Amino acid sequence: MKLVILVVFLARIAFASNSSCRVTSQSQMTFKFREEHTFENRKAESTKIKDRYPERIPVIVEKDPKSHIQDIDKRKLLVPNDISVAQFMRIIRKRIQLPSEKAIFLFVGKVLPQSSASMGQVYAEHKHDDGFLYIAYSGENTFGC
């Protein structure tokens, strides 16, 4: 319990400036989804998804390979534009069955997105050229923000 409170306190300090935490010392994670599917196939799939579900965002979620947290059961998700990053984080926590006393961090590229930001805002700022939003999760703040 004390660890969770400390993590929340430190997260509030890190985000007090009302901006996302940018990281420059680490390289971006390589997503298996990108390696397994060609750009053309990914682009066609995201376009089809966006045409069929215009109020939803195609998201690829993968675990940081350096993390010792559980793997997610489904890495391709379709999420509403208007949910917050905090709500999305709860979805991820549930899918990986992470106990409430354990911390989880979401990374979009080299950025820890604000928990109050909508997924639509994150998508608008960070979507890949193929039309998907790529999010990595980790049980520890591997980038040191």
TrEMBL record:
InterPro entries: Atg8-like (IPR004241), Ubiquitin-like_domsf (IPR029071)
Subcellular location field: Membrane
Origin superkingdom: Eukaryota
Signal peptide (from-to): 1-16
Pfam families the record matches: ATG8 (PF02991)
Phosphatidylserine amidated glycine lipid attachment residues: 144
Protein's UniProt name: GABA(A) receptor-associated protein
Cellular component, GO annotation: membrane
UniProt record, GO biological process: autophagy
Family: Belongs to the ATG8 family.
Species: Mytilus galloprovincialis (Mediterranean mussel)
Keywords: Autophagy, Lipoprotein, Membrane, Receptor, Signal
Lineage of origin: Eukaryota, Metazoa, Spiralia, Lophotrochozoa, Mollusca
